[in-house]
């Protein structure tokens, strides 16, 4: 069967496969690891990021597990689609990706940042697929109130900003731009602030993060920013039920500070909570081996049953 063609919003997608989502939007993905593995790990990246967020994680996971990672609509190499993106839509996209790339076998799903709410919405909207999931990893993310304590600022400062944010971001969603910038190098210096813990804002980490931001689609990320500012996943969290969950955060994360990880843990009392001292928001880069170990532990019950 011929793979669907990307619109090449960001040029070619070397080394990637493609699939069409339910509404016809074409996304790019990579599948790595043993094809006969009993468990597939599906990785969802964060806002303005893409599948390369997981570049350090995948080689370690793929030693024993099959790994699927993809660029969400409007991110990386994937097409943006015709309508504004929402968390529910991204959750349905995740279900589409799983049905195409991992139609059978057990699953572990990890969501970083934006990926956390997407995974929670997936759990609520697709109980048939959740039944195949042995574990969820919620990585440097939030279940509600994102932005209220961003950059460590007090609520009296962030509150008014978050209140007007939808009115500012809404018009940005109508900009006729295909990507943030063709020159991601201009973004790299600013990424020293906010994304990384002490010592982790290396030139390499800033450069590859900036490249991801540069590839993102302004209308898509503007629409999702509005969604994230107002999101409250209380109902979706309840839908997780008894599915094992690992919640991972960093003490120096100023985008989704550790209070958000603790709030998730309080709402999911059966979950494990791990906070990495000195780590920032980009845990896949900053705490690679530890993150791999957490995901492998979620997959272990299925592996033991084989």
Automatic annotation (TrEMBL):
GO terms for molecular function: hydrolase activity. The keyword Hydrolase applies. SUPFAM superfamilies: alpha/beta-Hydrolases (SSF53474). Residues 40-287 form the AB hydrolase-1 domain. Keywords: Hydrolase. It comes from the Bacteria. The keyword Hydrolase applies. InterPro entries: AB_hydrolase (IPR050471), AB_hydrolase_1 (IPR000073), AB_hydrolase_fold (IPR029058). PANTHER family: AB HYDROLASE-1 DOMAIN-CONTAINING PROTEIN (PTHR43433:SF5), HYDROLASE, ALPHA/BETA FOLD FAMILY PROTEIN (PTHR43433). This is Alpha/beta hydrolase.
